[in-house]
Amino acid sequence: MHISANKIIGVAALALIGSSFTVSRPDTATSRIVTAANNFLSSLEEKQRQSVLYAFDDEKQRATWSNLPTSFVPRGGIPLKDMNPSQRSAAMALVSAALSAKGFEKVQQIMEGDEVLKATDGGQPPRGNNGNPPPPTDRNGPPPGAPTGPPPGQQGNGANRPPFGGPPNGAMFGKDLYYISILGKPSEKDPWLIQFGGHHLALNITIAGDRGILTPTLTGAQPALFTSNGKTVRPLGPESDKALALLNALDESQKKQAILSFRLADLVLGPGQDGKTIQPEGLKASSMNERQRAMLLDVISQWAGIIHESAAATRMAELKADINETWFAWSGPTTAAPGKNISAYYRIQGPHLVIEYAPQTLGGDPSLHVHTMYRDPTNDYGRGLAAK
Amino acid sequence: MRSKLVAAAAILLSLCAAAFAHRLDEYLQATILSVEQDHVLASMRLIPGVAVSSRIIASIDTNGDGVFSEAEQQAYAQRVLRDLSITVDGRRARPTLLSESFPSLEDLRQGFGEIHIEFTVDLRRSGHERKIVLENHHQNAISAYLVNCLVPSDPHIRILAQNRNETQSFYQLDYTQLSASSNSFFSRVWSSLRSWTNSVGVASLFRLGMRHIAEGTDHLLFLLALLLPAPLLAAGSHWAGFAGTRHSLLQILRVVTAFTIGHSITLALAALDFVRAPGRPIEVLIAVSILVSAIHALRPLFPGSEAIIAAFFGLIHGLAFAATLSQLGLGRWERVAGILSFNLGIETMQLLAVAAILPSLVLMSRTRSYAILRIAGALFASFASLGWIAERLLGVRNLVDTVVDSAAHHGLWIAGALLLVSLVSSSLPKFRRYPSTLPSHEPRPLLRLSSHPLHDDISHS
User: Fold this and answer.
1) Full-prediction pTM beyond 0.80?
2) How far is B186 from chain A (nearest CA, A)?
3) H-type helices in chain A, by residue range?
4) Residue A70: phi, psi to the nearest 5?
5) Which residue of A131, A251, A281 is in closest CB contact with B280?
6) Which residue of A297, B41, B107, B238 sits 20 to 30 Å from the alpha carbon of B351, by its own alpha carbon?
7) pLDDT along chain B (461 residues), means of 10
8) What is the ipTM of this complex?
9) A131 — contact with chain B (CB < 8 Å)?
10) Maximum separation of any 2 CA atoms in chain B, in Å
């Protein structure tokens, strides 16, 4: 059989076109997250995989998150400490794929802060006047290969003292004690959910087609200010600074409406308070000028922008459309020491949004310990999308 | 280790002694209310901090056996409810315990266990304006409270206001409610109409409008200052005599109507988001408007153009009314009905105020003593407006609000006294301003701005 050069060229060209089609298959954020999730799952042993996977509509597992250390509120899934280095990096690659660069950095800083907390006081909490220390609930030592010892440059500060009784040897705090679980099957079409969290962190990331929903999510920090590798880190610094800047940009009569006359000692809609919509209070953004509204959106984007960029853009567009129905309320000191966080509570609430920033007064400087909440009462865990 | 314990003990001691509260030594009590047609549902979360948990545990585990028995849980939940004082529409109401759940004693001891208590309060029907007060006296000395209500799922219920004291141990919820029951055709039509108006809160907005004028003394002061010279005729740079009853009434009507038109326009435009104005400059301009009308009452600045001035400044006052309305967070189309009822409330209160002083104004303006009233009133208004300008522009705190508020508070007495004085002065011939003949020994008014006293006598109608 005679094969002409033309035919060879033709076949080669066809092969080239065909392969370029497979290569140029749309590389969306969702497809990258699905790939990362499948990589992570395939890196696990069968037993681990079973511990990680839940049904998408498992309401109990959905609600299994908290600001508290994992020794008090056990999370589902498996912790980083039970993974080998390659599983661990596959897990973090999945979290990273689902988040924006800034969002992932924030998550790492929160975990880093918990490591500082562990090194500062871990396992040696102040005792109340109630006598006996509690029995250790976790006897596991640090996992092999896990970083031990204090990170460089950590700050000794009485305010970092953890508030709870707990087991010795630091098994209550630290980077190792963050858990990952997957609800549903990683898919580019059907909704599924990634949960990642531990002390002061609870990410609930619903992936539904090209949408990504981050609500409900809890971020927190203790210490909320520390040094790492000679650099000062405030994981929730922009949340504090930008809100204070907005407050300062209000005129007196706006402030009168925004500043509540009563104290807010904690989150109103923290863990366990899913699906509740409280009566909004404070200053409505329809009474703000264009610049103030832009500043408010900037504060909101500190939470809405944790998720990967294209999902964040969709979310910000939704919140921008709601802006005139969005409220801003403040309670507590209206100033902050330079370079430090505010010690005031604030809340931003709209038709599809609740943000709460609640400094915790646990026997120290409240600016050094904060819990925040980010919710969409109409779409927590992507419920709103599923309903459509 | 020992030194850490000592340090912890020292911190604990200082916490117990200190006036500032820490979560470590606080008992967080968070309540969320859900208002329905005939009852309110309350869910409480109670979380004692580490330093106070043993105290709370002791009051639950009364037999000290280290276990929260069913009976002990019940008893504690009932005790919490007994420590609440609840009133509905001013009447004492009793909570009914629905459920309680307790964490383990150990979780509670460590400061993260949550006690959950659910209770309900019967809301027997009465009126559309409703008020629930929840006072929590449970463990006052060590507690931090959070109280909120959910956005009502029932469209017949609309939250008007939530008021709390600093610690939130006192919480007051004001809301409007419309009954959804009734059967006849007529009452159904009526009720759907009412449900629409009620969903906007027409009645309460009307009242808010009235209260806004009654309490927003600056608006009233502007109007009254502008009305002071209404019964008079201007002669050059000073106020001359009485312009006649018909003229006076027409002039008052013109000024009030112009003010109403002015503020209605901007109220509507601002409430519908067509215009927006920053709050503080508006407040300052309102104070300036009072000063302008006060000066006008002393010496005519714009004789004959009072109505135009009233309409112009009305535009500014309307923007301030809109700010009040926008705080309520009504939707854009709800606001149409809202503006109407709010504005009607404003007009009603305004007319009541004008009606209260109108007879005195007309009666007294025939007499010599009117100059005293006019000048005293104008000076009072200038004093108040200057105080407000200083406060609103420069942030200088002063007594103006207190003085003006207390005057407004006694508004009815003042109006009554004024009427009495005007009746007396107009009936006593020696105070009459325009006797048929002018005796040379007629005593002059105590205060007179006019440098040409005879002008006062020119224009007797």
Assistant:
1) no
2) 34
3) 5-23, 29-43, 46-52, 59-62, 85-98, 101-121, 237-249, 252-258, 290-304, 309-321, 383-387
4) -70, -20
5) A251
6) B238
7) 46 36 74 93 94 92 93 96 93 93 91 92 80 95 95 89 94 82 49 52 70 73 85 79 82 88 86 73 88 89 86 88 68 68 81 83 79 87 88 76 73 78 72 45 41 41 36
8) 0.81
9) yes
10) 105
